[in-house]
Amino acid sequence: MPELPEVETTVRGIKSIESSVIERIDVFNPNLRWPISNDLSFFLDNKKILSVYRRAKYIIIKCSNAHLVIHLGMTGKLVFAKPKDTLKKHDHMQIKFANSDQVIRYNDPRRFGSAHLVKNKLEDFRLLSNLGIEPLAEEFDGNFLFTKARNRNVPIKAFIMNHHIVVGVGNIYASEALFLSGVRPSIPARRVTRKKMEVLVKNIKYVLSIAIEKGGSTISDFMNTKGEQGYFQIDHQVYNREGQPCNQCGAKIKKIIIGQRSSFFCSSCQC
DNA sequence: AACAAGACCTGTAAGC
DNA sequence: TGCTTACAGGTCTTGT
């Protein structure tokens, strides 16, 4: 469950582990995108969790002596369970908390996710050090995006999904934000006007915020595992609606491939 | 520096 | 029913 709102929902869902002590970490299957470090347990057992937060789509668990950084990839999930619950297929690791019969398990069928032990400065960690701005930050505005887009010929959709520019805009919300902005996903980034960039930024913030709100509404169910519920509540205007009528004008939604990713748009509303 | 394409995996649904 | 194929929410790495 990977787009930014789902990651944010996950972070909020596990926020309660802050100030808990990790009793032990068990790695059942280290094979993720990168192998899980085998000294995770050595460094983090009996350490206190100071805070849990998100940067881009990374979940950061700050412990007293190091950071545990988790990415959910395409299909990763963090779910609460009881220690005696039987392991599920694709459970890769488990964090057990002291004085509690609660564990968090990381499950990831496609293994595009990862988990890292960061012992040194977090800012220097190679996967975090070159990231762009947070989409919900105030400094992310029309001027910022317009300026960054000078001399950039990539399609605007690929541009807003480039996390060296802005992080956390995934394939679904890129299509949705472009539709709401009346901007065709295939046009070169440099050709989007300043005014359109302002609208686009507002809509990126809008779709992500709404999705976080909706995901947030299922947080109480989160511990019961139904993590994906929030995701499917969201009404998509264009995503995955090829051939169906546009909700604004009735024209058929089209699908094209941009940067090897499916992209959906209305050729009448978006130019 | 910028961009395109390849790579990593399994599960599911559609097509034959 | 069973086999084959296409495709899926991400992003790092390699090659032009």
The tally of strands reads 10
The global form is: elongated
Mind telling me which CATH architecture of the largest domain this is? Orthogonal Bundle
List segments where confidence is low: pLDDT < 50 over at least 5 consecutive residues. 217-228
Question: What is the C-level CATH assignment of the largest domain?
Answer: Mainly Alpha
| β-sheet strand percentage | 15-25%
Number of DSSP helical runs? 8
Protein structure class: alpha+beta
Average residue-wise pLDDT: 93
Query: Helical residue percent?
Result: 25-40%
Overall structural domain count = 2
Taking the alpha carbons of the first and last residues, their distance comes to: 31 Å
Task: Note the run of SSEs as H and E.
Answer: HEHEEEEEEEHHHHHHEE
Task: Could you tell me the CATH topology label of the largest domain.
Answer: Helicase, Ruva Protein, domain 3
Radius of gyration: 20 Å
